[in-house]
Design a protein that fits this description.
The chain is an alpha/beta fold and 312 residues long. It has 2 domains: 129 residues, D-Maltodextrin-Binding Protein, domain 2 (3-Layer(aba) Sandwich); 105 residues, D-Maltodextrin-Binding Protein, domain 2, CATH 3.40.190. 47% of the residues lie in helices and 20% in strands. The strands form 3 sheets. It has a 6-stranded mixed beta sheet, with helices on both faces. A 5-stranded mixed beta sheet has the order 9-6-10-5-11. Strands 7-8 form a two-stranded antiparallel sheet.
Length: 312
């Protein structure tokens, strides 16, 4: 009987041992699977850190690529003719270089500088350096030239009198009413031997500098943009090239034109102007480069019949 009990106990122990082994083996398998799955689903802290570092390192490369594709917009004020027309020719060329032109057409000769001074415009294209110098002096502004583009010869145009030879005593001569352009008009009258100015006054000439006026010409000062409309009421008018074009006049019809090799051509080039802090702006430099290119020079020469002369 005792032998049987011992055998029975031994058998039970063996069975119990085997069950324990199987239980341990089963727990090991069930634990391993979730660990393997967890490794695939959730990176370890070290892996997360490594991925984060890689992302941070790659970010600047993506930002640089995006930056090179960005465009810059220049809001530029310009007189209608020829300035805005020339800018429209330049716009498609500039767009390929990432610069968009927002052209604001302005008829008068004051608003474009006001816009640059108050920041509503990035630049303007309508004036020459002497006019800008006068504006800065009178208004305490610091607007500068970024580059000279073209020259517009002043012309004497017929009003009531059809030729300079027919000018009579006391004839009315209309000239621009701003200081720099009036000086230019007086120089043209002197060029045609209608008046004589004090020696050396040059581009600073005023009516007070007239020393000889054999026909007692009456100088009437009128806003530049009004000169074409004033022609029926005066004997002759001396008109800026751009306003002459806008008024339907041709330089070939002028009674006299500034000499291309005279002081006017050297002094009165029309410029791109901006605040001094923008003088080195890359987008504005690109604009000037395009406007001084052969392509734009060819357009100017073929379009304006000598009323507008490229400087480059």
């Amino acid at each position: 009987m005792k032998k049987f009990e011992i055998a029975k106990k031994t058998q039970a122990a063996l069975v119990s041992g085997l069950i324990g082994v199987f239980a341990l083996t089963g727990c090991g398998a069930s634990d391993a699977a979730p660990q393997a799955q967890a490794k695939d689903a959730d990176p370890t802290p070290a892996a997360v850190a490594e991925a984060t570092e890689e992302t941070v390192e790659e970010a600047p490369v993506e930002e640089t690529a995006a930056t090179t594709e960005e465009t810059v917009t220049i809001k530029i004020g310009a007189n209608l003719t020829p300035h805005a027309e020339i800018l429209r020719q330049a716009a498609p060329i500039l767009e390929k270089e990432g610069v968009i032109l927002d052209i604001v057409e302005i008829e008068d000769s004051v608003t474009p500088n006001v816009g640059v001074a108050d920041g509503s415009l990035d630049a303007n294209y309508f004036q020459h350096q002497p006019y800008l110098d006068e504006y800065n002096a009178q208004n305490g502004t610091d607007i500068v030239s970024v580059g000279a583009i073209h020259y517009e010869p002043f012309g004497i145009y017929a009003g009531k009198t059809s030729s300079l030879e027919d000018i009579t005593e006391g004839a009315i001569v209309a000239v621009p009413n701003n200081v720099t352009n009036e000086a230019r008009a007086l120089l043209l009258l002197e060029q045609e031997n209608l008046i004589t100015l004090k020696e050396g006054v040059g581009v600073n000439a005023t009516v007070n500098d007239i020393t000889e006026n054999p026909k007692n010409l009456k100088i009437e000062e009128i806003a530049p943009e009004q000169l074409v409309r004033a022609l029926p009421d005066v004997d002759i008018a001396i008109i800026n090239g751009n306003y002459a074009i806008e008024g339907g006049l041709k330089v070939a019809d002028a009674l006299a034109v500034e000499a291309n090799d005279g002081v006017a051509a050297e002094t009165y080039g029309n410029i791109i102007a901006a605040k001094s802090e923008k003088a080195d702006d890359e987008a504005l430099k690109k604009l000037v480069t395009v406007l001084q290119s052969k392509e734009i020079s060819d357009y100017i020469n073929s379009t304006y019949g000598g009323a507008v002369v490229p400087l480059n």
